[in-house]
Amino acid sequence: MKTALITGAYRGLGFEVARQLTDRDFRVIITARHLNLGQVAAAKLANASFLELDINDPVSVGRAAKQVEQLDVLINNAAILSGDDQDILRLPAELLLATLTTNTLGALRIAQAFVPHLSKRAGGRIVNVSSGGGQLSEMGTWAPAYCISKTALNAVTCQLAAALRADGIAVNSVCPGWCRTEMGGAGAPRSVEEGAAGIVWLAADAPQGQTGLFWRDRQVIPW
Ligand code: NDP
Q1: 2 catalytic, yes or no?
Q2: End-to-end CA distance of the chain
Q3: Phi-psi region for residue 218, left (φ > 0), alpha (ψ -120 to 50) or beta?
Q4: Which of 92, 152, 154, 208 makes a 20 to 30 Å CA pair with 218?
Q5: What are the φ/ψ torsions at residue 214 (nearest 5 degrees)?
Q6: Residues 65-95: pLDDT tens digits?
Q7: What are the pLDDT digits (tens) for 2-52?
Q8: Ligand 1 center to residue 6 CA distance, Å?
Q9: What is the extent of the structural domain holding 202?
Q10: CATH of the domain at 124
């Protein structure tokens, strides 16, 4: 049985990814920074356990990493999008910094902490949940801090993919599409099930040799 760890997984896409992976006979480690909410979420699924993990807190990350032995898949799902993230010309530096801290640095910190636990020759995987908003080829004016943080996350994906290629660990970014979650809002066109499916495919089914790429709906998309 393979094991997957998912950040920010007590709700939204993270929880749905956990649910779909347990349906696929994965053992899932749901992580979240809220102890009670995380425990309640994990209790809903067979083969799920919970670990308290704030991706911005090095102490929390170090403590969580010590409690994990062998991992097959690491899914960097946790992220923030501020309602004040509106206008590049008036974007407060603090807001950009806070968004980069969680969405980019947080994901990198998690990768650094958990790569030593990832299976190597047996085909470890890191899936970074990014966003079409981070595509340089499609960049507009929407949510500048969030989009910049996801572009930078995609660069983290490329760096990690190159660094881990020789170990046989695949590292990819994925856009789930615009989904009805707290972040996506009720008006989004996709369900969480649809959004999670592409993440689950990368975690479980994508050919192991596919690494250093950006995906949506099982297709490679431009950076
Ligand atoms: P939600 O806002 O529903 O979930 C985000 C999760 O991240 C929450 O569980 C949140 O927990 C957690 N989180 C935030 N900061 C931290 C932290 N420091 N430590 C631990 N957990 C944290 O968002 P979605 O489910 O919609 O998004 C999941 C991923 O999909 C994100 O990476 C997002 O950028 C991406 N995405 C989503 C789209 C959409 O339309 N929904 C579109 C494109 C990409 P807490 O309550 O503690 O903040």
Answers
A1: no
A2: 33
A3: left
A4: 152
A5: -115, 130
A6: 999 999 999 999 999 999 999 999 999 999 9
A7: 999 999 999 999 999 999 999 999 999 999 999 999 999 999 999 999 999
A8: 11
A9: 3-220
A10: 3.40.50.720
pLDDT digits (tens, 9 = 90+) for 162-195: 999 999 999 999 999 999 999 999 999 999 999 9
Nearest CA to ligand 1 atom 36: 131
Number of domains comprising the chain: 1
Residues enclosing ligand 1, CB less than 6 A? Answer: 7-8, 10-14, 32-34, 54-56, 77-80, 102, 106, 129, 131, 175-176, 178-179, 181-184, 188
SS3 223: coil
- Please give the distance of CA 171 from its chain centroid, rounded to a whole number: 11
- Sign, Cα dihedral of 93, 98, 100, 103: negative
Q: Is 150 noted as a catalytic residue in this protein?
A: yes
